[in-house]
């Protein structure tokens, strides 16, 4: 292998500094599968890792960032994979405790590698990326709790972000009526309604309770929430009897105050979504669904921009400032 480029992040004087550096194969960590990376994407977690050394995402800098990748196997010590196989890696320690996907080559444990399912290209897999996988896991969790389109509308918070937008498009594909919540309502209504299929777009003020109480008017059969934080009790209070919330994020904060009443008087369920350590067998099934019934017909509409490794520092700042909507695709391998 010739020298290759990757985005290197260092903690210098309590500030993350990123540079595109040249590496050799021997610089890569241990793993059974060597992959030539074609695409990656920018997630909120990447933004944290690339801008805030105190975020807790990266415990030990320096690090090659990037929590997901798609590409082609170059070498494999595991018989499950052969040179030339197209594969996906998301979650586990990728880009957090193990060199990640913002790199022209990556070497990872075979147990992390998912074969690219029929019906997806490597590019499409990274339009989904970790954000899309989290959205798919959220939708799947609602279905496992018995939520069906006939039961009522589904609310999606953080709708202009990657997870929220993907969830809207997936739910629409499955026949659900979706209401989207976004602080960027004024700017994103056309994108969310005409592009992704939301029935209505609401500002967070329109879903917050004027008077805080544990139970309120029942508005939604289910909620996909990648935001978290203090809004959570208001949302739980407005779920239908037997409703369910799939919670996957903490951009709004990690703490909230609530009572047991929605759970014991309305039988609502709060399901946590962990895309990092989701069991491998479930991961295979879910990527299969993302290539079929969960694949939005308008998948490309979710791409806000396509960038290179050199553009990543600006993208990190943009996502942390809340100025990014949809997905930022990283074209790692040029000429494809």
Q: Which secondary-structure class do the elements indicate?
A: alpha/beta
Provide the domain count: 2
CATH homologous superfamily placement of the largest domain: Medium-chain alcohol dehydrogenases, catalytic domain
- How much of the residues is beta strand, in percent? 25-35%
How many helices? The count is 8
Mean pLDDT: 95
Quantity of strands, as a count = 16
Protein name: Enoylreductase
Organism: Trichococcus flocculiformis
InterPro entries: Acrylyl-CoA_reductase_AcuI, ADH-like_C, ADH-like_N, ER, GroES-like_sf, NAD(P)-bd_dom_sf, Zn-ADH-like_protein
Pfam families: ADH_N (PF08240), ADH_zinc_N (PF00107)
Q: Which properties best describe this structure?
A:
Rossmann fold, 2 domains, single chain, 336 residues, Quinone Oxidoreductase, Chain A, domain 1, six-stranded parallel sheet, globular, seven-stranded mixed sheet, alpha/beta, 8 helices, 16 strands
Note down, in words, how this protein is organized.
By secondary structure, the chain is an alpha/beta fold. The chain has two domains: 4-116 and 298-331, Medium-chain alcohol dehydrogenases, catalytic domain (Quinone Oxidoreductase, Chain A, domain 1); 130-272, Rossmann fold. The protein is 25% helix and 26% strand. The protein has eight helices and 16 strands. Strands 3, 5, 6, 7, 8, 15 and 16 form a seven-stranded mixed beta sheet that branches. A six-stranded parallel beta sheet has the order 11-10-9-12-13-14. A three-stranded antiparallel beta sheet has the order 2-1-4. α8 links the parallel β15 and β16 (327-331). The chain is globular, with a radius of gyration of 20 Å. The chain starts with a strand and ends in a 5-residue tail after the last strand. The model has no long low-confidence stretch (mean pLDDT 95).
